[in-house]
Each structure stands twice: as structure tokens, then as C-alpha cells.
Design goal:
- By secondary structure, the chain is mainly beta.
- It has one domain: Jelly Rolls.
- The strands form 4 sheets. Strands 3, 4, 5, 7, 12, 13, 14 and 16 form an 8-stranded antiparallel beta sheet that branches.
- A hairpin with a 2-residue loop joins strand 10 and strand 11.
- The longest helix has 7 residues.
- It is globular.
Length: 292
Amino acid sequence: MKKSWAQFFRRVALVCAVTISGSSAAWRSAMCYAAFASDLATDPVYADGWQAGDNGGFGFGPWNFDTDSFVSDPGIQKIDNSNPFNNIGTAWTIALPSTNGLPRAGRGFAPLTPGERLSIVVDNPTMRQFFKGYFIRFNDGPGNICYGGSACTTGTSPQEKVSLSTFEYFTNGRWSVNDNAGGTATPLFDTDTAQKGMRIDLTLLTPTTYELVMDPLGSAPSYTHTGTIKGGSGQIDWLEFTFFNTPTDRGSPPTAATDFYISSMQITPSPTLMRVMPGVACPGSHTCALRS
């Protein structure tokens, strides 16, 4: 649906994307574009840590940490910028205090429409434990998904539509994409995406089909997967991280990569579906664009 300029600028802000260098939490693109939603772990909202209900940036809902009722330890959610295994800078961090932990972190947003892209930058651990792992879920929310597909939040009925996961069952840290066709093993392993982190782009192509790009920020090549969302219907309006891997290394400094990091998230028009906006200036020599 077309929107007036006044409506548009109330909803979005111009965001300039630059190349990731070292541990900086930036975007691996040279395009300045209009973001429908954006948040960074460096937002002042998180200056006192990362708590349920925090809501930095714009366009996303508050963070939700609801998890399984039978879990004796909900886990650790914090802000980190110093762990030697964190390669993406200041980040929302999920860790296990013990083998009984099962932390989750999720938040909602306006349902993706065809041509919109949800992008996140993450860095994963390389420590593995049999029958353990972690999920990045793109859900039809609201709320996180608990054990057996049940809702973590009373009165909700979230459903997974697409997910990325590692689950250690003689898989050696290999990532899988999960959708209506089941699980598809990718050529990427946890060591590929932990070298310098990874950018994940999920673009909705039609109301039921999507493209997912996993782009390691180190030397490994990117991987692209297209498919149909689970169930063949529904929407994507909730992002969830579920972590049940190895307990955190409490050493000073830590000597093992045990924690999971997220530095940024955005919802933007897909670059392939954008048109140039004449007369609108961007910083530097970048291009400004808006949905057609």
C-alpha cells in the first residue's frame, strides 16, 4: 500500500549501512536506506543491562524472556562488549549459568510484507554438547515457543514459520534451515559463523515464501536458501532466540566460546525491490531508497 511522505517519515528513519570492520556492530552493505524497524545493543535503553520489557530503537516491541515453567534456572541475559569470543562488539548476550538453564529472548514487530527484509547480526559459540544447541526462530507470534511447541506465554499460540538451528546429534556444529519442507542442512558450521560473526537476512518474497541468506563475516562463503513457511500460511511477526548449549565460561578472561551474541536488528525494504528516491539526500555518497 502506498503511504504519504508524512506517514512514511513518522514510521521510518534513514539508516546508513557500512562495512563491518573488526568487532564493530555495523552492516555489511554500502547503501543508505529507510528502515521500518531498527535496534542496536548500544542503545541507551540497555545502559543498565538487558532486562525483559526493555525496548530500544524503534519499530520492535519490548523484549520477552518467558521460557519453560519447568526450567529451574531461566538463564543469563546481559549486555557484553568485552568477552574475547564476542566478535561483533556490544551485544545482547544469552548464556547458561548451569546445565539447567534454558534462556529465551524474543520480541515482536509489524508482520513482514512481501519485499521486506529482517536482518540480524549474531555471533555463536563453538563449544558443543551432545543433544544441545540453539535456535533462531522467525515466528507467527506473539510470544516465545516453549518445549513441544507449546506457548511460553499464557493465552498465546505462537507458531514457528522459519528457523535456523544447530542441534548436536553427530552434526559437528552444522547449521540447518527449518521450514515447510522440514530441516535442510546447510554447508555452514558454527566455526564458520563464529569466526567474525554472521549476518542473517530473511526476506519475505510472497505471503508464504521467503529467502534466507546466511552471510559469515569471516572467510566462509555465504549461503542462500528459499522455501515456504511452515504450514503454508500465517505471518512472521516475532523473532526468538532459544539457547540450551554449554554453561558459560566464568573465567577471567574466559577461555572457551560458550555464549551467544546479537548486536543489531533491522527491518528494511529488500535492496532488490527498492527504487531510488529523487531529491532525498543521504550521508556521504550512498543511495536512498523506499519501497515502490
